[in-house]
């Protein structure tokens, strides 16, 4: 299995990936992380020992392409020499440099690398901006929140285009996602995939209940949890433009996670209105996804069940039904392999 991991610089994706590697090792799997930029620096060191990640994007595009090709050849040789080993290839499809994007990877590069899946790891923009300030290679570069948001959007958009062209899936994953999600995408990619939908309000009151429920879902499915990356739109109320961009990216991020799932499971343990939950179930329903709703209340509007396939007023019954769906998917997978 070869995974191409895309993210903006400063995303701290290696924490999630390293935890996944440790989980794989505990289960007898050999999973290795390879950094594409590091491999490019190795290739460049023969020409110029002074090159490092802070100066690499300054190179002429043709020189940059040559270094990238050399790095990809070295990675491919490594993969061929180590059968039975799985790889996460850390890279970028683009750089954001001097107030604009620089294309790094194209379709031909991935035809050579042949990744089985793509992942784009998304981080909160504020954390990204602070992380970039602390990285030595970015210390003398001014990348503000606005540019961080643009780079994040370009990275996801470009990776989506490339993956679709190659008939592969690009999974959006929050930087704080449970490593079991990435592990199962690598080693059990045919598992049932669920997007967990719930109200993001009243967090202190209901999040413990949501966490317990999501933990139950993870026993039977790959779960995409929107809490794994909180873009924090309300933090930017001081700047109308920033707030608008983060609001829109939040919606697109959640829709992307729904699109990559098989179904949406809504957990409403408290009767709190959520425009996000309403929008998510309508998006899922209108794109052909199954929608299950946990709603433990006796009174509800005619609109409540309209955009769902099944409603449950007992959590145990919902989990039982999901186990049946998961078992049917597993049975179908095994049958297709016979």
Q: Describe it for me?
A:
By secondary structure, the chain is of the alpha/beta class. It has two domains: about 190 residues, Rossmann fold (3-Layer(aba) Sandwich), CATH 3.40.50.300; about 150 residues, Rossmann fold (3-Layer(aba) Sandwich). It is about 50% helix and about 15% strand. It is built from eleven helices and twelve strands. Helix 1 packs across helix 7.
Largest sheet: 5 strands, parallel
CATH-derived topology of the largest domain: Rossmann fold
DSSP summary: helix tally: 11
Q: Which percent range describes the beta-strand content?
A: 15-25%
- Write down the overall mean pLDDT: 88
CATH class of the largest domain: Alpha Beta
Task: List the topology elements.
Blueprint: E1 2-6, H1 13-26, E2 31-35, H2 36-45, H3 61-81, E3 86-91, E4 94-97, E5 100-103, H4 107-113, E6 117-122, H5 125-134, H6 145-165, E7 170-174, H7 179-187, E8 193-197, H8 203-217, E9 222-224, H9 240-259, E10 263-267, H10 275-286, E11 290-294, E12 310-312, H11 315-337
Parallel strand pairs: 1-3, 1-6, 2-3, 6-7, 8-9, 8-10, 10-11, 11-12
Antiparallel strand pairs: 4-5
Helix pairs in contact: 1-7, 2-3, 5-6, 6-9, 9-10
